[in-house]
Amino acid sequence: MTDDTSATSDQHDSDEPTDSRRAVVLASGGMDSATAAYLAAERGYEVCLLHTSYGQNTADREFECAEALSNELDAVVDFLHVETGHLQAVGGSSLTDEGIAVADADLDAGEIPSSYVPFRNANLLSMAVSYAEAAGCDALFIGAHSEDFSGYPDCRPSFFDAFQTVVDVGTKPETDIAIEAPFVEWSKTDIAERGLELGVPYEHTWSCYREEAPACGTCDACAFRLQAFQRLDERDPISYEERPSYVEEA
To answer: Which pathway, metabolic or otherwise, does it act in (predicted)?
Structure first.
């Protein structure tokens, strides 16, 4: 597993404990953002969680999981839930548009999947920066990782570097908020392994693109998640309709 790094590692050394005291974490309800929250706490941050419901298929379950995280992690000092319908109104994604089916898993696909929500991370990060500046935070954590940016253009390291410039230019002169994407070069397996070390309660996280209970087990998000636990020889604690094997036979 690689070292903890951020998308702005040239300015913010993520291998060392930070002197900053408070960070916003974008809490989707999934395992990546939950792990990011626990990592921020380990680095000494007080954590402000921001969860956004934007009309996604599993919005209710994701909110329940984000709220559970806020109760499980002692470092959480605030939990903000924002409801917005504009991404659903825009459409163009199988996560928000009932007319687009959620595809079955294809972990080797090279094209942008139908689950891509157009420019979602820019929207979420913008809200999170507003929250961070108003709350006097020093950092903003997002759990994006390498298997995300292989398909989603707004999960690439270059995107987060560019967004850091937007933050630096678009906030008050005295504001200094670091965009931290600590898993940007990691795999899902790396994240699961680190999260298990940190004691992340993965039973209170949700990844499925289709269903709120049980998880389908066959969409991309379920496949990457199950594969990560299977590679670590650990059982994913959430319930699935199917649990296919996503690891190659020895």
So the answer is: Purine metabolism; 7-cyano-7-deazaguanine biosynthesis
Say how far apart CA 87 and CA 59 lie, in whole Å. Answer: 13
Residue 33 is labelled as binding a ligand: yes
Q: Binding residue per annotation — 32? A: yes
Q: Is 216 labelled as part of a ligand binding site? A: yes
CATH topology of domain 22-213: Rossmann fold (3.40.50)
**Is 35 annotated to bind ligand?**
yes
Asked if residue 155 belongs to a known ligand binding site, the reply is: no
| pLDDT tens, residue by residue, 5-20 | 444 333 333 444 445 4
- pLDDT single digits (tens) 124-173: 999 999 999 999 999 999 999 988 666 899 999 999 999 999 999 999 99
Predicted TM-score (pTM) of this structure: 0.91
233 appears as a binding residue in the annotation: no
- Residue 127 is labelled as binding a ligand: no
pLDDT tens string 35-68: 999 999 999 999 999 999 999 999 999 999 999 9
Is 30 annotated in a binding site? The answer is: yes
Q: How far apart are CA 30 and CA 66, in angstroms?
A: 8
The domain limits of the chain are 22-213
List the one residue out of 142, 140, 168, 165 whose CA is nearest residue 155: 142
Q: Say whether 48 counts as a known binding-site residue.
A: no
Helix axes 188-198, 220-231, angle to 10 degrees: 60
